[in-house]
Automatic annotation (TrEMBL):
Gene3D superfamilies: Vaccinia Virus protein VP39
Pfam families the record matches: TylF (PF05711)
Name of this chain's protein: Macrocin O-methyltransferase
Transmembrane segments: none
InterPro entries associated with the record: SAM-dependent_MTases_sf, TylF_MeTrfase
């Protein structure tokens, strides 16, 4: 299945223990910096590690649990991770389920978005994402975020570089299969480069989430 991030409709994922569910809920709240929000009335500064919002994280949780419950083979991957929030949630769900076999692939330039190439990808003409300083999050910051959540482990694979350079490397191409692929590269170029490189690795029954599907250029 290929889904926009706001699609919803995932089946309620596995029973899981109350402790597992409470842990995952706490991780989502921490990623959104809402745990102690009521204790900070009037404070406007938010230190969130995810931009997708509560609904987006809830949907991601349901989709990850769906592929786990259905035993869809493969790793979990996000391309375009910002501060790593969605990947942290995926890692937390694997930890809660005791799944030590799947890897979480954290793939990003860690330098922001590329400048658009309108000759090659006309849909990206005049795109300004490369000018947004807040999208430039270092790999050190992302690895630090994983550590803050107690989720730094050998299950987490970091891949640094532009997608047209990294997606065809031996390291990526040696991935046997992908159960869930989340794309959040903001540009059509960044999206199609990933799909061309690893779409064929998505398992039958696997899920593809395109965060930016709401943008007309992604549907070109």
């Amino acid at each position: 299945r290929c889904l926009p991030m706001w699609a919803g409709g995932a089946e309620e994922a596995g029973s899981g223990s109350g402790l597992q569910e409470a842990y995952v809920h706490m991780v989502k709240s921490a990623l959104l910096d809402t745990i102690y929000a009521k204790d900070r009335p009037g404070e406007t500064k938010v230190v969130a590690r995810s931009m997708v919002g509560r609904k987006g994280l809830d949907d991601l949780e349901a989709f990850v649990k769906e592929v786990l419950d259905k035993n869809v083979p493969g790793d979990l991957m996000e391309t375009g991770v910002w501060q790593g929030g969605s990947c942290i949630l995926m890692a937390a769900i694997l930890k809660a389920r005791g799944d030590r076999d799947r890897k979480v692939w954290v793939v990003d330039s860690f330098e922001g978005c590329p400048k658009p190439d309108p000759e090659m990808y006309p849909a990206d003409n005049n795109d300004q994402h490369h000018t947004y300083d807040n999208l430039r999050v270092s790999i050190h910051k992302v690895t630090s975020n994983f550590a803050d959540f107690g989720l730094a482990s050998s299950q987490i694979e970091y891949v640094k570089g532009w997608f047209h350079d990294t997606m065809y490397t031996e390291r990526i191409q040696n991935i046997e299969s992908i159960a869930l692929l989340r794309l959040d590269g903001d540009l059509y170029q960044s999206t199609i480069e990933v799909l061309r490189a690893v779409y064929y690795k998505v398992s039958i029954g696997g899920i593809i989430i395109i965060d930016d599907w709401r943008l007309d250029k992604m549907q070109a």
